[in-house]
Amino acid sequence: MTARRLLAPALRTATAASLAAGGYLHAWLYLDGYRSVPVIGPLFLLQAGASLALAVLLLIGTPPLLLRIAAAGVALGALAGFAASRTVGVFGFTEHGLRPAPQAVLSLLAETGTLLLLAAWQATLAERPRAARPPVGTAAWATTRTPPG
Q: I need a labelling partner for 102 at 20 to 30 A (CA). Which of 70, 126, 132, 146 fits?
C-alpha cells in the first residue's frame, strides 16, 4: 500500500480523535460546573454532543463534504466561543486567560488540531485524480446535449 493510500484514513482517524477530544473536554467542563451557568452550560453540552457524534460519523465510511464542513463548523464555533468569552463576553459570561487549567489549553489544541487535520485531509482528497470528462465540443459531449436552435 502506498503512503498516499494510508494518509487519508490516518487523517480521518486523527481528525475524529481530535474532534472527540474537544467534545470530551466540553462534557467534562459541563459536569465540572459549567452546567450551572445559564445559556453557556447547555451550549457546552451541545458542543460536546455534536463533537462526539460527528467524530463517530467521520469514522463510518467515507464521509461526505457536508459532514467535514460540519466538523469544521463545530471546531470553529468552539474557538469563537472561547475567544468571545475572553474578550466581549458570551451572554454576559466572561473568563480570563487560559482558565480553567488545563482544560482551556487542551481544548484550544484539540479544536485547532481538528481544523488543521481537516484541511490536510481535504487536501489529500483534492489531489485524487478525477474521472476524465470529454472536452466541450467533442462527439461524446454532443451526444449528451441537444444542440441549440
A: 70
